[in-house]
């Protein structure tokens, strides 16, 4: 997985998706985790948008991320709230804990940062192995339509100090065989009309079909699968949904 969040990318992410901002997912995850006994893991925790509110609500959260910059934002938000956070720098492919988790959550399509199908299957197996018997996996995927929509956008944010951050997003490749898209993301930091710093990220994502992903989950050993559309638990996904959620368990 080559995708990473550097300094400017992490800054933009934190401005665009601050801790506590919900797209319907925060409420959904609180509901689906209600009654879980034991620690809960969030891989790719990012700036803590979901992690911190769940920790505040009393859920025993642990998390990891591949980006030290993102972890810095998450730790800062936890310190500001006097919350103890168990956070480490790890990747999807090689994370390891001695703990067995009652739940693992992967909100907001973060799993689609894994762009090789074999690697994704191995990560799902790793999730399964880190769950306690009866533990659940709750994971979101962006539907195929979101990958094939309009591209080439420019967005901007103003910082607290009045600086300007811009993001130019240009899709440069769509591979219909590998089911991936590749975008060039250019982040620019401006002050008084002058360019202070730029970053260019090559950002690759993979899309999945609903049945395809269900088969991979079953192949990893998961059972009791529920697939839901737009954070309406138990409502089957339909064309036009913005998000598809999968919930599955490790058997007792």
Characterise the protein shown here.
The structure is a single chain. With 252 residues, this protein is α/β, with parallel strands linked by helices. It folds into two domains: 7-144 and 208-249, Rossmann fold (3-Layer(aba) Sandwich); 146-206, N-terminal domain of TfIIb (Single Sheet). It contains seven helices and eleven strands. It has helices spanning 7-16, 25-33, 51-56, 68-80, 117-130, 144-147, 210-219; strands at residues 40-42, 61-65, 86-89, 101-106, 131-141, 153-158, 164-175, 180-191, 194-206, 223-229, 244-249. The strands form two sheets. Strands 3-2-1-4-5-11-10 form a seven-stranded mixed β-sheet, sandwiched between helices. It has a four-stranded antiparallel β-sheet with strand order 6-7-8-9, with helices on one face. It starts with 6 loop residues before the first helix and ends with a strand. The mean pLDDT is 96.
Tell me, what's the shape? globular
Total number of beta strands: 11
Which percent range fits the helix content?
A: 25-40%
Query: Kindly, what is the distance between the CA atoms of the first and last residues, rounded to a whole number of angstroms?
Result: 32 Å
Please give the count of helices. Answer: 7
**Can you give the mean pLDDT?**
96
Physical arrangement of strands within the biggest beta sheet: 3-2-1-4-5-11-10
Largest sheet: 7 strands, mixed
CATH topology of the largest domain: Rossmann fold
Element pattern in H and E: HHEHEHEEHEHEEEEHEE
CATH-derived architecture of the largest domain: 3-Layer(aba) Sandwich
Number of domains: 2
Radius of gyration: 18 Å
Identify the CATH homologous superfamily of the largest domain.
Vaccinia Virus protein VP39
Structural class: alpha/beta
Under CATH at level 1, the class of the largest domain stands as: Alpha Beta
Fraction of residues in β-strands = 25-35%
């Amino acid at each position: 997985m080559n995708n990473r969040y550097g300094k400017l990318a992490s800054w933009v992410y934190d401005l665009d998706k601050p801790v506590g901002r919900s797209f319907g997912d925060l409420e959904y995850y609180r509901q689906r985790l209600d009654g879980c006994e034991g620690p809960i893991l969030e891989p790719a925790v990012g700036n803590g948008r979901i992690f911190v509110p769940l920790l505040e609500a009393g859920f025993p959260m642990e998390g990891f991320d591949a980006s030290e910059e993102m972890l810095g934002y998450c730790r800062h938000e936890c310190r500001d709230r006097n919350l103890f956070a168990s956070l480490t720098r790890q990747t999807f492919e090689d994370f390891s804990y001695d703990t067995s988790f009652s739940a693992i959550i992967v909100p907001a399509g973060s799993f689609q940062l894994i762009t090789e199908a074999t690697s994704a299957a191995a990560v799902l197996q790793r999730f399964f192995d880190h769950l306690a018997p009866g533990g659940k996996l709750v994971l979101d995927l962006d539907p195929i339509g979101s990958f094939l929509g309009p591209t080439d956008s420019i967005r901007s944010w103003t910082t607290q100090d009045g600086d300007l951050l811009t993001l130019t997003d240009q899709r440069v490749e769509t591979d219909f065989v590998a089911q991936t898209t590749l975008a060039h993301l250019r982040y620019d930091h401006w002050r008084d009309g002058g360019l202070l710093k730029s970053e260019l990220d090559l950002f690759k994502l993979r899309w999945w079909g609903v049945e395809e992903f269900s088969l991979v989950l079953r192949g990893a050993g998961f059972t009791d699968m529920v697939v839901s559309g737009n954070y309406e638990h138990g409502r089957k996904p339909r064309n036009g949904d913005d998000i598809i959620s999968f919930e599955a368990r490790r058997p007792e």
